[in-house]
Design a protein that fits this description.
The structure is a single chain. This protein is α+β, with helices and mostly antiparallel strands. It has helices spanning about 5-10, 15-25, 25-35, 60-65, 195-200, and strands spanning about 40, 45-50, 50-55, 70-75, 90-100, 110, 130, 145-155, 160-165, 170-175. Strands 3-4-9-8-5-10 form a 6-stranded antiparallel barrel. A two-stranded antiparallel sheet has the order 1-2. A two-stranded antiparallel ribbon has the order 6-7.
């Protein structure tokens, strides 16, 4: 029995919805399914298809420990190649991704420590506990990633970029150019006291 026959059989017995819900309850199956689309719930019509995928061949620990991100490719799927027209010439891109390795349990986390700063020498126990929406932690109710990368060059449907903080195989949901109108002037930028203090400790400028 091939996969099409299997699906038709399941549908014939009225068990397709039960099969889908069972797959979503299983972490491994859920993570695999999330490489291809985003499922919200049975009462919502939202359906997101990845437009591409991250490729660099590095293991997750290398990416986690890289302060400035890694070099890699963003492969855009064939059916979306026209969406890259005139993207050449932008120096930086905003990458919207699906953090498909975040488990359902991790999506329930609302208080975290900003562990990205550990890469710069701050001990984990020195980091304050803060709300997830005050951080870029991947553990959040909707595991959507936002990254700003440098566009090195484009070869057809392949974008070579640097500064990637995404794991190999991460699905890409959208790409936008980083333009001056999105920038915040240094004189207007403000951060909370806890962040400013940690930023100064790692040698950052005054904010």
């Amino acid at each position: 029995m091939n996969i099409r026959e299997f699906i038709n059989t399941i549908k014939g017995y009225g068990l397709l919805n039960a099969l889908i819900m069972e797959l979503l309850r299983d972490n491994d199956a859920y993570n695999e399914l999330s490489r291809y689309f985003v499922i919200t719930n049975t009462n919502n019509d939202l359906f997101l298809r990845p437009i591409g995928i991250v490729k660099h061949g590095l293991n997750d620990d290398v990416v986690k420990s890289s302060p400035m991100g890694v070099d890699g490719l963003i492969e855009i799927f064939d059916e979306f190649i026209d969406g890259l027209r005139n993207i050449d010439g932008f120096s930086h891109l905003i990458i919207i991704s699906l953090l498909n390795k975040v488990t359902k349990e991790q999506q329930k986390v609302l208080v975290v420590r900003p562990r990205r700063l550990v890469r710069f020498g701050i001990a984990a126990n020195e980091l304050p506990e803060i709300g997830v929406f005050a951080t870029d932690s991947p553990h959040r109710p909707n595991p959507i990633g936002l990254s700003i990368v440098k566009l090195v060059n484009r070869d057809g449907r392949f974008l070579r970029v640097s500064g990637l903080d995404l794991f190999d195989g991460t699905p890409i949901l959208d790409i936008k150019p980083y333009t001056p109108d999105r920038s915040v002037g240094i004189n207007d930028l403000r951060t909370p006291n806890w962040y400013s203090a940690l930023w100064k400790r790692i040698g950052g400028g005054v904010i």
